[in-house]
Design a protein that fits this description.
It comes from Levilactobacillus acidifarinae DSM 19394 = JCM 15949. By secondary structure, the chain is α/β, with parallel strands linked by helices. The protein is built from five helices and five strands. The chain has a single domain (8-153), classed as Cytidine Deaminase, domain 2, CATH 3.40.140. It has helices at 8-26, 50-53, 60-72, 90-98, 140-182, and strands at residues 33-38, 41-47, 80-86, 103-108, 133-136. A hairpin with a 2-residue loop joins strand 1 (33-38) and strand 2. The longest helix is centred in the last third of the chain and has 43 residues, at 140-182. It is elongated. Bound molecules: zinc ion.
Length: 183
């Protein structure tokens, strides 16, 4: 489902999710953030934490769901809205369904892993016992730009590291040549 105009409150919650994405970027994690709103209050927030925890399941949505469940003291997140900067993957879509979240707002699509619109339609599959109302595109540009910037910087770091390794190898080779010529 698409919605062209969003309320100021909806934009505010997505900005909070984008702030979570920034927190991920600051610590070198892929910048994806999420918040869960219940009766106008943010009751769960999360950003990607996979690298720091060495835990493949620690996506932004999972962390936000865990916190929201703890806040409400319930695994059922009925009457909640999830805001996430990037289209949820298969794992997170599964968690959204299992926690009974009725409404999801996401920013940009993920053509390689998105399980809401891009590769699968998990959240709106009527064969499941729970379906979700989905709004895509809210502050999508801001969400996408964060990913592009992050991966561009990561590639530059990789390039610089490769150059440094090559330079170090050259110095080492010259050094060994130097010592062998002396002996
Ligand atoms: Zn995920």
């Amino acid at each position: 489902m698409r919605q062209i105009t969003y309320s100021a409150a909806q934009q505010h919650y997505m900005e909070e999710a984008l702030f979570e994405a920034d927190r991920a970027a600051w610590i070198g994690e892929v910048p994806i953030g999420a918040v869960i709103v219940h009766e106008g209050h943010i009751i769960g927030r999360g950003h990607n934490f996979r690298e720091h925890a060495n835990d493949a399941t620690l996506h932004a949505e999972i962390r936000a769901i865990e916190e929201a469940c703890a806040t409400l003291g319930s695994w059922r997140l009925e009457d909640c809205q999830l805001y996430v900067t990037i289209e949820p993957c298969l794992m997170c879509s599964g968690a959204i369904i299992n926690s009974r979240i009725p409404t999801v707002f996401y920013g940009a699509r993920d053509p390689k892993a998105g399980a809401v619109d891009s590769l699968y339609n998990t959240l709106t599959d009527s064969r499941l016992n729970h379906t979700v109302t989905v709004y895509e595109g809210l502050l999508a540009k801001d969400a996408g730009e964060r990913l592009v910037t992050f991966f561009k910087a990561a590639r530059q770091r990789q390039k610089a590291a490769k150059k440094a390794r090559k330079a170090a190898a050259k110095v080492a080779a010259e050094k060994s040549l130097d010592t062998s010529s002396k002996s």
